[in-house]
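Below sits the subject:

***
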Amino acid sequence: MHETKPYFEQSTFPTIKRDQLKIIQLNLGYLCNLSCVHCHVNAGPKRTELMTRETIDQIVDFAIKNKVTTLDLTGGAPEMNPHFRYLVTTARKHNINIIDRCNLVILNEPDYEGLAEFLADNKVTIVASLPCYLEDNVDKQRGNGVFQRSILALKRLNELGYGDVLTLDLVYNPQGPNLPPAQQSLQYSYKTHLKQHYGIEFNQLYTIANMPIQRFGSTLISKGTFQGYMQLLVDNYNSDTLGQVMCRNTLSIDWQGFVYDCDFNQMLDLPLGDRADKIHINDIMHDPLQDTQIATRQHCYGCTAGQGSSCSGALS
């Protein structure tokens, strides 16, 4: 796989600093039941990296001490971490909100019976990847049969109250090196199509640009389209989004407990605040990091192009 980090070093991205910490985004490991083309984590069924229970306890302790309101769980498939349910129930006891970034298909896997019910019982917010509302496009990006298995999962979640009294949001990613379309109009298309054809309800659609790192970035390099995509991101820079990028109020923590400014910096192994070495969660246990500098490189234009893009969708 092609290394993308060297392409970002000569950066023109503006300097930004942290606001008050509200969210911790945890990568519980790279193990996943899918191998998606757009995956910036390079997750898959053969990955073995998984966060330990000891590290989970350290992170929950940090969250309590620093009054963090939300834990945002990612992977891989975060549910495949053997301590996933322990983490959810422990955090909920302390009134910490949980977001599960779910690929939907995991809810149908043989070893995960009752997972959907567990999420509902703990009032977990589900942010589910569905990169298109058309079957062929989803299967092309995520694998044969994934769309229909996703539809089955969405119907089950609706039966449990998701999309109504429980929050179910969907995520759109472009098929290739393009910016996402306008979030509001695409949400209308999603809601209309999924309701009419499958009877499915959901709350919001998030449009997220593909970040040119890891698997997706390597594919761009192989096809000779990497520089063109980067130029597209730079040319569409929107300064109005800069105050709302997720790294201002979110910390990203990897499966070993090391801390980064964002999930993308984590994948680039770019230390927190451009420090010389990586920082572990234990090193900042009583430090919420407000007003400290955020490590930025040229890939950050991926979060600020067009309407902007974060794990909460468009920014403007």
Observations:
- The longest strand covers residues 97-102.
- The first helix runs from residue 53 to 65.
- The chain has a mean pLDDT of 91.
- Residues 5-304 form a domain with the TIM Barrel fold (CATH 3.20.20.70).
